[in-house]
Amino acid sequence: MTRIRGDLSNSADIWEKISIAEAAKHFSYPLLRPQDSKFTFVKSFGVVLKDENHRVKPGDIWFYGIYDIFQWKQSEIVVMQTLNEVMTNVLKDPEQTMAMHYTDGKWENVEISDDVVAMFLPGSIDNYLEVNYNTADLNVIRLNLHGNASKNDLVKLAKTYLGK
């Protein structure tokens, strides 16, 4: 969280932090919210561009999305949520196809359910879990979870968003 806070303050002229209620009106898809779990919920917020016409430059950090922060065993887990626009467009247009390539490490496919594509990457400090969830209305919502937690714990936390 400290890194996100610092990076956001360094980009305060580009990004704006908003409440979850504001974010629910801003984002074009229904937000996934976590159910009660063993993970201690700390806070939520959305991040949007201050100026919708702003052109993000190469090297700019992309913050657009919903952030949920959890505490678990003296560590922090950050869950970032966004609409996966590429996958959503492919689902809505049967003429399109796509391929996904995971690089920069040894990614592992994680089975959660038929409407989820999930990949796990162990890290030296934080572990990463990317979840792409196909909703009934053909949106694909991406959850990026990272923190000093096991693969099983990240999967359990992800499932609280998916009702599984």
What does this structure look like?
The protein has 164 residues and is an alpha+beta fold. It contains four helices and eight strands, in the order H-E-H-E-E-E-H-E-E-E-E-H. An eight-stranded antiparallel β-sheet has the order 1-2-3-4-8-7-6-5. Strand 7 (127-134) and strand 8 form a beta hairpin. The longest helix has 12 residues, at 151-162. The model has no long low-confidence stretch (mean pLDDT 87).
Number of helical regions:
4
Low-confidence stretches: none
Distance from N terminus to C terminus (CA atoms, Å) equals 27 Å
Write down how many β-strands occur, each being a DSSP E stretch of 2 or more residues.
8
| Average pLDDT | 87
Query: Proportion of β residues?
Result: 25-35%
What is the global morphology?
Answer: globular
